[in-house]
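To assess whether ligand presence alters the predicted conformation, the chain was also submitted together with iron/sulfur cluster. Input:
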Amino acid sequence: MREDVAGDVPPPPTPLSRGEGERSGCGTPPSGQLLQVRGLTKHFLITGGPAGVRTIGQVRAVEDVSFGVAAGETLALVGESGCGKSTTGRMLLRLTEPTSGSVQFAGEDLLALSHRALQRRRRQMQIVSQDPYASLSPRQAVEDIVAEPLDVYRLYASRAARRERVVELLRLVGLDASHLRRRPFEFSGGQRQRIAIARAIAPEPRMIVADEPVSALDVSIRSQVVNLMQDLQERLGVAYLFISHDLAVVRHIAHRIAVMYLGRLVELAECDALFDAPHHPYTQALLSAVPAPDPERKRTRIILRGDVPSPARVPSGCHFHPRCPIAQQICRESIPPLRQQPDGRSVACHFATAFPIPV
Ligand code: SF4
């Protein structure tokens, strides 16, 4: 990692940056549904046999996932590595084709769109991926990288207007015109992610799928990029599906949080409600590992037994039952549906309210 040509925290032209911990994403989520996902499922076939073409099994990467995202909202999708978060995000953009389910975006069924119509729709739905080193072409100058969506959707009238728009976008992410002709290798990880974000907001999307956008960055730089994303949301009204395994980061940016375990959503709640009183035993275990901001309120660490099972051999009934400290016979036999609770959250557990574990 190169640290760095112009410093990782270039002085922004407008008051974009805030100090770490100055604000939290937890709060009332905006209303007005933009994205509606229903029963989204992805099974990858495992092939084998002498010719390598016989189906010998399937990986149940994502199973019957449903959620909505409001305009201007940040919904965080959290869970351990391999739980299906990224596959879910990719299916929203049809970068991975779902096995079944539906994705409505701004009232339009994305899974029914032709390739050409989908290309047009993708202008409103962009992606920022985890690795700022792999996601930017090393041969292109920053100007051309950021202008890529402008070129694809022909969003300028002249070369001068193109450059003017790129400079405007660079300023929005805390870079400037002096960076236009530089190449990605000249920047640090944080700056590269700023460039990737500038490219993502270039076509003025209504939603961005941010797939672990800060997990490859140094800890000291993560909050700067998260603050930048929050500021851009306030200015542009863009919604985020923020995919992360880092609950501390998620707490800073999310309005609501959806927790995934082995391909299924197990709990979906507003950020404060989830952190204050997680209902699902898996959420309770995840949060028990996050230091409580209030030192008076010590959490008891919950250590789960065993490892996450392979998605090629998911357990019967509740996927979590082999590791759940309160599992009963019914948990081995019956899949708990994601049910709405009286406080508005949704939980997939037969005993979500019957056996709360104190944290
Ligand atoms: Fe645990 Fe049963 Fe709830 Fe699954 S359904 S989380 S096994 S109590």
